[in-house]
């Protein structure tokens, strides 16, 4: 029977990496619980209250995002979901990407994609203007 020797990972400041991994693990647990509350609250308000799924249209979103509470709610849901998913994929990349160059490239793409979605999502939430009609130059709310 043959056995293989365990792979030895070169140490790179174990204390700082250990703290990062511990904090990462704690973040996953905390963000997961908070995401459950945010997502089920989102689903309840959007689907169970009022007329259900038939009420969801442009006007529904415009009315919801007119309230800063719902902007912050959706922003927290976006940020936590993206950071939670990014952290999970980072762990998977660390576990399965054998070559350091592959690991670096995959993590770079992951971080770039996460940053783009977070920035664009945040811009959409805070710059959303329901009064702009994309088909004309008129401001629909004031009819200028």
From TrEMBL:
For the keyword Chloroplast, the answer is no
Instruction: Report keywords, A-Z.
Output: Membrane, Transmembrane, Transmembrane helix
Determine the domain of life of the protein's source. Bacteria
TM region(s), chain numbering: 26-49, 69-89, 109-128
- Full protein name: Succinate dehydrogenase hydrophobic membrane anchor subunit
From what organism does this protein derive? Nocardioides panacis
